[in-house]
Write a structure and sequence with these properties.
Helix content is about 35%, strand content about 20%. With about 550 residues, the chain is of the alpha/beta class. The chain folds into three domains: about 210 residues, 3-Layer(bba) Sandwich (FAD/NAD(P)-binding domain); about 130 residues, no CATH class; about 140 residues, Guanine Nucleotide Dissociation Inhibitor, domain 2 (2-Layer Sandwich). The strands form five sheets. Strands 1, 2, 11, 12, 13, 14 and 20 form a seven-stranded mixed β-sheet that branches. Strands 7-6-16-17-18-15-19 form a seven-stranded mixed β-sheet, sandwiched between helices. A two-stranded antiparallel sheet has the order 3-4. Helix 8 crosses helix 13. The two termini are about 30 Å apart.
């Protein structure tokens, strides 16, 4: 007889683990099925080179919802987020201002840099060095964006309504949002509309004139998208990332101690403590259905499991196209699923270093290396990187977001050694056929990234001990993220809220009864956020009429 559960969760990424933790907390017999030997999906830490523990895919955290940390008591299960301080943007010689000078009037390094830190006063003084107008604008811009983040934050916890439904009850949560919108000033309301419609570049250009500042800030608007900083709609993605917070501070980013796998392991520990069963190396081959409802799963090993409910934390295409028998869903819904856009556009390079690189714009091993290092010297450079991708090529001079996690968590590498984590755009999943595919271009892509960084830190190539290159195809093969899209589907405006993933089916339920979606293909989207998994579990429990039990 097949084993029977109240709930089966497909996929041991952070959202699947969160769903399992909440369901188990409510007393449901729950099992998580993960295909890999390690939990976390894209939020994993692996020792792929002896002594070097790397966050292979996702590498920073900010969006993880505070209520999840609190309700699952994740710090007790080992979660420790170490704050990152600031963003350092090196600017090459001849672009922008002359090299800064020390107290004796001697130039510091070659070129210039822009360095924003968590200390607001220091950041304003740095901006004043570039533009007095920008320094003044920043004083207004920062609080206004915090206001926008606070206004939109409640939407992360609600279930999108079906606008075609005649039942008014699902619309009730929106009345509070409407009242909040009406309480905003006219200026705030106008800014919110702009954020929903404008490009990141156009939005920021209303405030700032400094090119490296606009390029670096606009980068948050294109992460995980197949769009450029001048593409309409990217201003919302900028706001999406601005909603991250650590200990109540918006726009705060950090590194989980032990890498992003530390988050997944803490959630898994919380789920197990509530009674959830978690199985690794248990890939699901098929979701079983009968009479229009999900009844369980069949593993690739042939083992069958039965359940009252099945939750899929893998993306919408893998759920309905890969894991279900053809003909299970109607053709109209299947067509909508196939129209859902992934368009993976990013890669990841992980490097083990013999010592820290030396950035010529600000030489030495200073605190500027302890935060993010953004290779985004100008808006034109960002757009040219996108131009390459539009024609099916990886960017020759890409945008790169660099973290050196060993400066915050030395335990990730042997003493005196370091890890450099590089998130890269653009790397289109669908390469021009003339290039011969990603398996043929993997090392050339890695070389392009190293060469681009070396323009600002010439000694980097000599310090690389090991290099791990993750193309979009590699990300798809390893994690199951379709087309290597880090958000399980683009965060474009037509794929948000009640249209994510399919119009009319944005409430975590699916046309197959007792089959639920709980991954990032659902509202409110991607990132190590966890809201998707939590809301899906709460909706399932509501349907069962369960109030849960005390944590």
């Amino acid at each position: 007889m097949p084993q029977r559960y109240d709930a089966i969760v497909i996929g041991g990424g952070h959202n699947g683990l969160i769903s399992a933790a909440y369901l188990a907390r409510a007393g449901l017999r729950t099992v998580v099925l993960e295909k890999r030997h390690v939990l976390g999906g894209a939020a994993v830490t692996e020792e792929i080179f002896p002594g070097y523990r790397m966050s292979i895919f996702s590498y920073v955290v900010s969006l993880l919802r505070p209520e999840i940390i609190r309700e699952l008591d994740l710090p007790r299960h080992g979660l420790d987020i170490l704050p990152l301080d600031g963003t350092f943007t090196p600017v090459p010689q001849g672009m922008g201002r002359p090299a800064p000078k020390d107290g004796n009037g001697n130039p510091i390094g070659t070129g210039d840099y822009l360095w924003r830190v968590n200390d607001h006063g220091r950041t304003v003084r740095e901006l004043r060095r570039w533009s007095k107008m920008d320094a003044e604008a920043y004083e207004e811009y920062g609080p206004l964006m915090v206001d926008m983040a606070r206004f939109i934050k409640p939407i992360l916890a609600i279930v999108p309504p079906d606008p075609a439904s005649i039942d008014p009850r699902p619309l009730l949560p929106l009345t509070g949002l409407l009242r909040s919108f009406q309480k905003l000033t006219e200026r705030q309301q106008a800014v919110f509309v702009q954020l929903m419609t404008m490009s990141a570049y156009d939005f920021l250009s209303q405030w700032f004139e400094t090119d490296p500042l606009k390029a670096t800030m606009a980068a948050s608007g294109i992460i995980g998208t197949y769009q450029g900083v001048k593409s309409p709609g990217t201003a919302y993605v900028l706001l999406h990332h601005y909603m991250g917070e650590i200990d109540g501070a918006f726009r705060a980013w950090g590194i989980p101690k032990g890498g992003t796998g530390g988050i997944s392991n803490a959630i898994a520990s919380a789920a197990r403590a509530k009674g959830a069963e978690i199985r690794t190396e248990a890939p699901v081959a098929r979701i079983r259905t009968r009479g229009g409802r999900a009844t369980g799963v069949v593993l690739e090993s042939g083992e069958e499991l039965e359940a009252d409910s099945v939750l899929s934390s893998v993306d919408v295409r893998r759920t309905f196209i890969d894991l279900m028998e053809p003909g299970t869903i109607d053709s109209e819904f299947e067509a909508e699923v196939r129209r859902f856009k992934f368009r993976g556009s990013s890669g990841k390079i992980n490097m083990a270093l013999d010592s820290l690189p030396n950035f010529t714009a600000l030489p030495g091993e200073g605190e500027h290396l302890r935060g993010a290092i953004s290779i985004s010297p100008s808006v034109d450079a960002m757009e040219r990187a996108y131009d390459d991708a539009k024609y099916g090529r990886f960017s020759e001079k890409p945008y790169i977001d660099i973290i050196i996690p060993t400066l915050v968590d030395p335990s990730m590498a042997p003493p005196g050694k370091h890890i450099m984590s590089c998130f890269v755009q653009y790397a289109p999943y669908n390469l021009d056929p003339s290039l011969g595919g990603w398996d043929n271009q993997r090392e050339a892509f890695g070389d392009a990234v190293v060469n681009r960084i070396a323009e600002f830190a010439p000694d980097l190539p000599s310090k690389i001990l090991h290099r791990n290159v993750q193309t979009p195809l590699d990300i798809e093969r390893t994690t199951g993220l379709t087309e290597g899209n880090i958000f399980q589907g683009e965060l474009s405006l037509e794929q948000l809220f009640f249209s994510r993933p399919v119009p009319g089916w944005a409430r975590f339920r699916t046309p197959v009864r007792d089959l639920w979606l709980c991954g990032s293909s659902t509202h409110p989207g991607g990132g190590i956020m966890g809201a998707n998994g939590r809301i899906a579990a709460m909706e399932l429990l509501k349907k069962r009429g369960s109030r849960g039990r005390a944590a």
